[in-house]
UniProtKB/TrEMBL annotation:
Subcellular location: Cell membrane
Gene Ontology CC entries for this record: plasma membrane
Protein name in UniProt: Putative MFS transporter, AGZA family, xanthine/uracil permease
Coiled coil regions in record: none
UniProt cross-references to PANTHER family, sorted A to Z: XANTHINE/URACIL PERMEASE C887.17-RELATED, XANTHINE_URACIL PERMEASE C887.17-RELATED
InterPro entries in UniProt: Azg-like, Azg-like_bact_archaea, NCS2
Similarity-based family: Belongs to the nucleobase:cation symporter-2 (NCS2) (TC 2.A.40) family. Azg-like subfamily.
Main location (coarse class): membrane
Protein keywords: Cell membrane, Membrane, Transmembrane, Transmembrane helix, Transport
Residues spanning the membrane: 21-41, 56-78, 85-103, 109-129, 141-158, 178-198, 205-224, 244-263, 275-298, 352-373, 379-399, 406-429, 449-468
Length: 475
C-alpha cells in the first residue's frame, strides 16, 4: 500500500486508496454503457463475411474494452489523472451513419481514417502543439466549460430518465411520472442519490446507480413491469432462455477479422483521397475540442486548474486519448476520447491515476462479464449525471458577469453545449465571440494573435462543415 501511495501521490492530493477505489467504481458504472452501446452503433456499418451481426457486436465489444484499457492505462500510469477513456459517443455515430452508411466510405477505410487521426494527435501532443492551442482558449471560456458540461449532463440525464421528453410545440417538456415506469424509478433513484450526497455518504453515486438498477430488475422479476421496460431490451429474455453461465460462455472473443479489415483499409486510402482527408479532418477537429473541453471541465470540479484556468501537464492526459485512438482503430473501433462521465468519479473524491487504474481494471474484468455489464439499465447510470451536472454548475461563480466579454463568451459556451449536444460547439461559440466583443469594447490588446487565429479556424471549419452537406454531416 505504501508503494501505491507513493506512486500516485496520495498525500500530495489529499486522498487514499479507499476513496480512489470508490471513485473508480463510480466512473466505471457511469461509463460502462459504452461496452454495449458502441458495438450496437458500429455494427450497423460493419459487415464481415461469415459472421452474423451478434458475433460482430461481440467482437466490437472486445475491441471497445481493449482500446479503453490501453488509453486508461496511459492516463493512470503516466498522466496520473482520474479520467476514464473509451470510444466516444457521437464520434461512433458519425463513423457509422455519416461516413460509412451516408458517404459510402468502406468501414475499413473509416478505421484507417481514425488511425491517421490518432497518429496526428500523437505527433501534435509530443511537440506540445495541442497544449499550446488549448492554452489559447480565452479565460471566460475555460471557466465556463465546467458549467456548460454540467448543463449538458443534466439535459442528457433527464432525457434518459424520461423526466424530459420531446414535444412538437416546445421541443421538450416534462415527462409523466405517473405513466412512465422509467421516470418514476429514476426519480426515486435520483432522490436517494441526492439525499446520500447531501449527508456526505461516501459512495453515494455508486450506491444510487446500483440501487436503481437492482430495483428495476426486481420489479421486472416480480411482474410489476414487463421485460424491457426497466431492464435493457432483450437482456431479461436472454438470461431466462440461455442462463447466465451459458450467456457469458458464448461471447465471441476473436476480433482478428476487425484487425484484418483495418489492414485492408490502409491499402484503400488512395481510392478516394479527398473524401478520406475530409473524414480525417472532421474526426480530428471534433475530437480535439471535445477532449479539451472535457479535460478542462472535469478538472475544474476536481480543483486541478491553475489560476489561468489551465491544466498543468495537460499533454500527458492528451497523449492517453491519442494512443487509445490509434490502438483502437487498429483493433476495430472508433475514436477514443476522455469521457465526461469521469466527473462522477472526481465528485466522489478521485484525484489521482489510481482512480483511472481502477476503471481500467474493471473494464478488463468486464471482458469476462460483457453480458452482465449489459444488464445495467442506462437510465440508472444517467441518474448520476444529473447529480454531477448540478454540482458542476458551481463553475458559473468563477465568471465575471459584469465584464461583457466574459459574460458573452462564458454565457454562449454554457448554453450552446446542451442546446447543440456538443462540447466542441460550445467551445466554438465562446472562442469566436470573445475577440469580437473585445474588439467592440476597444480592448484588442487583450486578445492575442493566436486567439484570433483560433476563432478564424472555427469559422473556416463551420464554413466547410455546412458547405459540404449540412444534413449529411449532422452528428
Amino acid at each position: 500500500m505504501g508503494a501505491i501511495d507513493r506512486y500516485f501521490g496520495f498525500d500530495e492530493h489529499d486522498t487514499d486508496l479507499e476513496t480512489e477505489a470508490i471513485a473508480g467504481v463510480t466512473t466505471f458504472l457511469a461509463m460502462s454503457y459504452i461496452i454495449v452501446v458502441n458495438p450496437i452503433i458500429l455494427s450497423e456499418a460493419i459487415t464481415i463475411d461469415g459472421y452474423g451481426q451478434g458475433e460482430i457486436q461481440q467482437m466490437i465489444a472486445v475491441a471497445t474494452i481493449l482500446a479503453s484499457v490501453v488509453a486508461i492505462g496511459v492516463m493512470a500510469l503516466w498522466a496520473n489523472r482520474p479520467f476514464g477513456l473509451a470510444p466516444g459517443m457521437g464520434l461512433n455515430a458519425f463513423f457509422a451513419f455519416t461516413v460509412v452508411l451516408g458517404l459510402g466510405v468502406p468501414w475499413q477505410v473509416a478505421l484507417a481514417a481514425v488511425f491517421v487521426e490518432g497518429i496526428v494527435f500523437i505527433a501534435l501532443t509530443a511537440v506540445g502543439a495541442r497544449r499550446y492551442v488549448i492554452e489559447l482558449f480565452p479565460e471566460p471560456v475555460k471557466f465556463a466549460v465546467g458549467a456548460g458540461i454540467g448543463v449538458y449532463l443534466l439535459f442528457l440525464g433527464l432525457q434518459e430518465m424520461q423526466l424530459v421528453v420531446s414535444d412538437p410545440d416546445t421541443l421538450v417538456t416534462m415527462g409523466n411520472v405517473a405513466t412512465s415506469a422509467v421516470a418514476a424509478l429514476s426519480l426515486a433513484g435520483l432522490a436517494l442519490m441526492l439525499v446520500l450526497h447531501a449527508r456526505g455518504i461516501r459512495g453515494s453515486i455508486v450506491i444510487g446507480i446500483l440501487a436503481t438498477a437492482v430495483a428495476g430488475w426486481l420489479l421486472t422479476l416480480l411482474g410489476v413491469t414487463s421485460p424491457g421496460t426497466l431492464t435493457p431490451p432483450g437482456s431479461y429474455e436472454q438470461f431466462s432462455n440461455e442462463g447466465l453461465l451459458n450467456v457469458i460462455a458464448s461471447v465471441q472473443y476473436d476480433f482478428t477479422p476487425l484487425v484484418a479489415g483495418f489492414v485492408d483499409g490502409l491499402g484503400m486510402i488512395t481510392d478516394d483521397p479527398l473524401v478520406f482527408v475530409l473524414v480525417v479532418f472532421t474526426f480530428f477537429f471534433v475530437d480535439f475540442f471535445d477532449t479539451a473541453g472535457t479535460l478542462i471541465g472535469v478538472s475544474q470540479i476536481g480543483g486541478f486548474l491553475n489560476e489561468e484556468g489551465d491544466l498543468p501537464e495537460i499533454e500527458k492526459p492528451l497523449m492517453a486519448d491519442a494512443v487509445g485512438t490509434t490502438i483502437g482503430a487498429m483493433i476495430g473501433t472508433s475514436t477514443v476520447t476522455t469521457f465526461i462521465e469521469s466527473s462522477t468519479g472526481v465528485e466522489e473524491g478521485g484525484r489521482t491515476g489510481c482512480t483511472a487504474l481502477v476503471v481500467g481494471l474493471l473494464f478488463l474484468l468486464s471482458l469476462l462479464l460483457v453480458p452482465v455489464i449489459s444488464a445495467i439499465p442506462q437510465y440508472a447510470t444517467y441518474v448520476a449525471l444529473v447529480v454531477v451536472g448540478i454540482i458542476m454548475l458551481q463553475g458559473v461563480a468563477d465568471i465575471d458577469w459584469q465584464d461583457p466579454a466574459w459574460a458573452i463568451a462564458g454565457g454562449l459556451t454554457i448554453t450552446i453545449m446542451p442546446l447543440t449536444a456538443s462540447i466542441s460547439n460550445g467551445l466554438a461559440a465562446g472562442i469566436m465571440s470573445y475577440p469580437v466583443v473585445k474588439a467592440a469594447m476597444g480592448e484588442t490588446d487583450d486578445v492575442s494573435l493566436g486567439q484570433w487565429v483560433l476563432a478564424l479556424a472555427f469559422v473556416l471549419y463551420f464554413a466547410v462543415f455546412f458547405a459540404v452537406d449540412a444534413e449529411m454531416f449532422a452528428f
